[in-house]
Structure formats: structure tokens, C-alpha cells
Design a protein that fits this description.
By secondary structure, the chain is of the alpha/beta class. 23% of the residues lie in helices and 20% in strands. It has an 8-stranded mixed β-sheet. A two-stranded antiparallel sheet has the order 4-5. It is globular.
Amino acid sequence: MNGTSKTELRRKLRDARRAHVAAMPEAIRGLLFHHPPAPLLARIPDAAVIGLYHAGAWEAPAGAYARFFHEAGHPIALPRFAARDSPMDFANHTDPHSESDLEIGPFGMLQPEAGADRLVPDVLFVPLLGFTERGERLGQGGGHYDRWLAEHPAALTIGLAWDVQLCADLPSEPHDVPLDAIVTPTRIYGLS
């Protein structure tokens, strides 16, 4: 990115994502990311544990995917943190329709309650700030997903993003783990 720091790039990508989503009518937002695309579904085993995330206001929404996979009989797992300095793990999300099994975690995000069973996703949908066509991902900067992915290399990893988040290049470090695919409202990148 021609000398642009990751911090500055994150700021620019957050601003672009926020402007993109704010300009989109809410009715249209509700139709996007409603159902996983068929080429992606073809890669997901019947009994796979599906890891998702509880999206923030400007992130690509994952709630409809949680409901879809739950109705198809897949166990759903969301990230959970015991404390701000704890590693990210995943726990069972049993109620993707009304989210009655979620509580506010140490980062202010909804997560499964402390007593929820720990799960290890076979397929993991990942939030991101930026991505490339090659599957490179720029996250929030905490490294939680990169550490989890390094420990679970067999997981199928899919980013969910708005088209505006596509970057020609991203700064890369040895610990950055590329994704197998990225799904946007108009394209699927990867899944070769």
C-alpha cells in the first residue's frame, strides 16, 4: 500500500465502509447476505460446525447466515472472550433468531453466555476491514482471528465483506493468515 501504515489503512477502510453502508437503503441491506451462495454451500459438509460473528453496525451482516445454517441443522459458534486479555474461543449459539443466549462480552460485543458449550468451527466466517482478490485480510488489529486460524489450519475460512472493502494490495506480515474465500454482495473470491 505504498508506505501506508496499517493504522492509517484501517482508518481509511473504516471510513469507506461506514460511508458505503450509510448510503445504502436499509431495505437493501436487509436483502444482502441473506443466504450463502451455492458454490460456498457445496464446500460445507453436512455436520460442520459453523463459526460466525455478531456483526457491528458497519460490518457485513452475518445474522441471516446464522439463522440459515441453524435451520439446516448445523451447530453455530460465535467468538467468546472471558476477559479482554483472554484468547478468542468459540461457543455454542443456540438461538440465532432472538439471540436470547447472548450477553455483552469484555469488548462490548454480544457473545455466547459464559456457560455455553465450547465449540471448534469447521467452517469460519470472518469479519474484516479490507481484503484482496488473493484472500489476504486486514482485520481490526487485535490479531484474534490470525491466532485462532494459526491454531486451526484445517478450518475452511470465508470473509464476509462489502465490495468497497476490496484492496489491490494489503501490507502483510508472517502471522497474517489468508482466507479461502471472500463473499461480497456481488462476487465470491477464491474457492478454487
